[in-house]
Amino acid sequence: MNQPASLHKAYTFIRRQRMRKKIKLYKMALGVFIDKTIATYLLLIGGYTFVSVFILGDFQETFHDTFVFVEQFGQERFWLILTILPIRYVNQAFTKPGVIFSSSEFQLAMLPYKRLKIWLYSAVVKWLSQLVILSVVGAFIIWLTTLPAMLVLAYIGLIMLYNIIMTIPQWKLYQKHLIIKIGAVILVGIVNMIGVLTQPVLVGVLLLSVILVLNIIWGRKLLADVDWKKVTEAGDFAIWSMLLVNRASGITMKQDRLYSIFEKIKLFKEPFLYGGRAIYRRLWILYLGKNYQLLLQLLGAVIALMFVALYLGDVYFHIGVAISIYVYTQSAVAFFTRRFHVDIVQILPWALNDYKDAFKEWMLYISIPLFIPISAYAVSNWSFWIPLIFLLYGSVFLLSLEIVLAKTVSLVAKERVNHFGNEMLLLVALICLAVIGYVPVVTFSFVVFLWVYFKKRKQPKFA
Amino acid sequence: MKILEVINVNKYIKDARLIHNVSFSLEAGKVLGLVGHNGAGKSTLIKTIMGVFEKTAGEIRISGYDQDDNLLSYKQCLSYIPEEPLLVTELTVMQHFQLYGMSYGLSKQELDERVERYVAGFELGDKLNDYPDALSKGMRQKVQTICALLPNTPLLIIDEPFMGLDIYAMDYLVTLIKEKVAGGTAVILSTHQLERVKDIADYYLMLQEGEVQEEGSIADFEVIQRRTNV
Asked: Which residue, of A72, A347, A366, B21, has the fewest CB within 10 Å?
């Protein structure tokens, strides 16, 4: 009779071979960008910068006040982290199952090894690597700053705890329908809002308890109803999509997507109202729908950013909103530009203004969830300024979207238009928004930005 | 009257030379057969003319519109039938025709008249509300072909024109191409089916490793040289 097979040996063999191959690929990719001379210079410059800033310089003294501030905030808002942290995992569940189960792990399960055990190995390896990274980062923070070691360790412990207890919920959520995932994001957003407005400790502990219960319930059926094709694709993508290698080879890995909602709804089979904007709206919803993971990640990241800003204090919230508007509109530009380089649209003439107006409508609809943190801010800081602040947020957002898209339209059309004035205007608008926490009267600048926005809307467009 | 002018066009990806110093022009109402072995650069040249690939150097003009200076008007002047259909899975056949009609600025009446005629000719009358996934490969190619024939552009580019079409559809397409040419449209046909090209084309241009190897009247065209001496 054959000896029972050792999963440990087989699994570590696969991981070792994978690591070797990745190192080989990284070496090849590095060879494209960096030769030995450049590498030596980079090492010297890096070493010199580190030594001069952190060791020879009075780094700790220079940033003493900042460290005191961070320490104070870190202690005061420690429990808010309990509700903020899960956003990350719920957001990731749109694209990542949380545990890497690639086609190699799947093939391994065809051999006499239990799939559940392989899953556990992958999870443990992930936790260990996260622990190592957090420990290294934590050690540097303790070494280089004046932050108390206990506070740093407490945060590391909390993050690590969530890394572990959110593994199963993320894995199961990844398998669920899109609507459930969106529902989960909204739910966690609402819980955060309640946390900010009421008792963060109580809400945080309650959420933690719910997560633990979910672990027990879902842990029993961990591998039930798993879409293995999707999981292994995501695993392969996570392992082999290496930024440096992609850059060097010029080949970008993409995850396969299936999108068939429109095929099932009869209404969508009807011809369009000819000459209207409906056809462009449809093209955009199809395109954005195919990229929904990226969109949801963008929304998740921006909402998290705003909650973190809210956590830091109301003055910082406006800075957070200004950064969020910038990030959102720049991401919109990336989506817009890419549209003209895929499928049938790339070979057609483009009615760019119709494409732009239809796209802007969708980007406005998609931004609706950003009202969750904004509402939390409004409720917790209600005053007569709030409606005016909302008007400023809205006007800067609309103006930003209009300016960046107008510039993109002229770039796509290869029109030589000078956008310097508009870019400066955009910068001024964002700065105005960012400083209203310090200079509230700047809030009234919304009148100017709204006026400019409507004036720009009336300007002549491309044919 | 020159419809298409390709002047010293180069296309490089890093050090790899895909198209090198290609120049030619095409008059209104003339057909150019673009021939060459696999990998000769035919598709790259077509995509560069289309603007899908950015050229590294050179100039391309259609009806006087420069690709670099007036891209939107330039794109209005050409339509394209790709080798493989580029249809959107979630748009029906009729919605594709509408997309083309609107993109090329056809009136509703023009669109309806042309759709009616071409759909009957390619026998797709009962497929207008179907999605591409419900169609056979040949039918998808017919849909793509009709899309490109809907506008009357100065330049029509066809990559492997008869790929996937049945014998009746091929004959019908040849009739339509001849009709377009008679109306003043310049046509580029990129194909391996040389016998078909010989019947329609006025000139040929042979590419090899991204360079023009031969060009001239189709009457002078004999055979593509073998890529190797074997």
From this structure: A72
**In the structure, what pLDDT confidence band is assigned to residue A253 with cuts at 50, 70 and 90?**
low
Question: What is the C-alpha separation between A374 and A394, in angstroms, rounded?
Answer: 11
Domain end call among A11, A31, A57: A57
Name every residue in B having a CB less than 8 A away from some CB of A: 13-14, 50, 52, 68-73, 75-76, 80, 82, 86-92, 94-96, 98-104, 108, 111, 129, 131, 133
Of the partner residues A271, A412, A414, the one whose CB lies closest to the CB of residue B94: A271
Residues A40 and A90 in one domain: no
Asked whether residue A50 falls in the same domain as residue A77, the answer is no
Neighbours of B199 (CB within 10 A): 10
- From the list A415, A401, A413, A416, the residue with the least C-alpha distance to A456 is A401
Mean pLDDT of B154-174: 88
**pLDDT score of A126 more than 90:** yes
- The string of pLDDT tens digits covering residues B2-22 is 899 999 999 987 777 889 999
Give the closest-approach CA distance of B126 to chain A in angstroms. 14
Q: What is the ipTM of this complex?
A: 0.87
Which of the four pLDDT bands, split at 50, 70 and 90, describes residue B227? very low
Instruction: Let me know: does A329 contact A404? Beta carbons within 8 Å.
Output: yes
Same-domain pairing of A4 and A82? no
Question: Closest to A348 (Cβ–Cβ): which among B14, B92, B103?
Answer: B103
Query: Which residues of chain A does B96 touch, with a Cβ-Cβ cutoff of 8 Å?
Result: 344
Query: Is A51 in the same domain as A119?
Result: no
A77 vs B109, residue with greater confidence: B109
Q: Which range of residues forms the domain containing residue A19? A: 1-57
In sequence order, what DSSP letters do the residues of B9-67 get, joined into one string? Answer: EEEEETTEEEEEEEEEEEETT-EEEEEE-TTSSHHHHHHHHHTSSPPSEEEEEETTEET
Same domain assignment for residues A35 and A78: no
Q: Kindly state whether residues A157 and A297 are assigned to the same domain.
A: no
> Are A220 and A288 within one domain?
no
Q: Does the pLDDT value for residue A178 go beyond 60?
A: yes
